[in-house]
Automatic annotation (TrEMBL):
One of its GO terms (molecular function) is monooxygenase activity. Gene3D superfamilies: Cytochrome P450. InterPro entries: Cyt_P450, Cyt_P450_B, Cyt_P450_CS, Cyt_P450_sf. It comes from Amycolatopsis arida. Pathway: Antibiotic biosynthesis; vancomycin biosynthesis. Belongs to the cytochrome P450 family. This is Cytochrome P450.
Amino acid sequence: MTEATTGEQFVFDPFQPGFTDDPYPHYAELRERAPVHRHPFGFWVLSRYADMFALLRAGLSVDLRHVSPDTLPDGRDSVTGAVEPVSGLSMLDVDPPDHTRLRRLVSKAFTPRAVAALEPEIEDLVDGALREIAGAGRVDLVEALSFPLPFTVISRMLGMPSTDHERLRELSGTLVRSLEPIVDTELARAVEAADAEIAAMTAEAIAWKRRHPADDLLTALIAAEDGGDVLSDDELVAQVVLLYLAGHETTVNLISGGVLALLRAPDQLALLRREPELAGNAVEELLRYDSPVQSSRRITLRPYEVDGREIPAGSFVMASLASANRDEAFWGPDAERPRLDREGARQHLSFGGGPHHCLGASLARLEGRVAIGRLVERFPRLELDGEVEWNGRINLRGPERLPIRV
Ligand code: HEM
């Protein structure tokens, strides 16, 4: 293929003004002009549904150490500038057999059955938040519901001692930036500092938990670590940090982004009110329509072919899940609008796929369904009360502030 037909002069630029407020037109252009895109920084971007589906299940690596310097342009020593949080030891950053061992240790807490048992507690938390919203009349939904719900649930599941929540929130907000496609030096330094501080806080929480064991996930993981060579000290810290961050930095976007999508599509809001049993499918469609995690990554260990083009071994591939979720070739001509009764909405790729498929998917679905379902049911006059403010992130993208009136 020639440059002209590959559309290689087109450069995907998530840093251009306005991108994080509405990345979707840019994804549409990417799918159209350069569906197998090599960024000038040396990484590749895939954006079509079929390519993503295959990529996620192709048994590729997620370990950044496999990125080959040969794939990078002169002068760059790291593909995205990204640093590896907590030394890259979380299950999200490692391949089998480590991945299999680590995931197995944690997965019991996240089976659909274990998660279903949390429903009454989640309903109580949501109802408590809705009472306060009713009393106040006008609130920022992020502060009132979308953030505290998943944050409280994962803190309780882990059995985290009460700690400096504000500081932790600030640090995790910085640390998740390491998942962005490109990280500049200044941000990389901030991420490293946040990583060190959050790891130290987590190590302290683990030390405290050793003295105060209870029926919770942290105690179970400590027991696994004590039980032999199943889990090292550093690995324990890395899994706890991952669960803690993944537990709240993602679902917050599902709840706020989902509610915003409904408020902007009044016919769909009315549909959900008429047919509350649609709430489960509605959450799938809202996950598709605005992906709380916009991208994942894979690293090729051998040449990997997509659409007649060869991605060389050792390449970093950015998997744009959010783009795949809007691909008309898969979803049909109405891909750009939410339809809560869409058949097959659950085929979205918001939770990734293959061996790294999101471990917390059942929990996120449950929190999303209860929060969005009950909010809509309880407040028939729910409306926007000003402009949404986006959090400015390229990957874990969502509203920073969502003013609503009930
Ligand atoms: C992995 C999305 C909520 C725990 C992932 C991945 C994505 C994702 C895209 C990577 C998948 C891949 O590369 O194939 C989401 C979204 C959520 C959410 C959109 C909310 C709407 C949660 C929650 C938890 C969680 C609530 C746990 C409390 C994890 C873990 C992994 C993961 C542990 C790593 C799995 C592995 O590497 O084997 N998630 N997540 N996530 N997620 Fe989630």
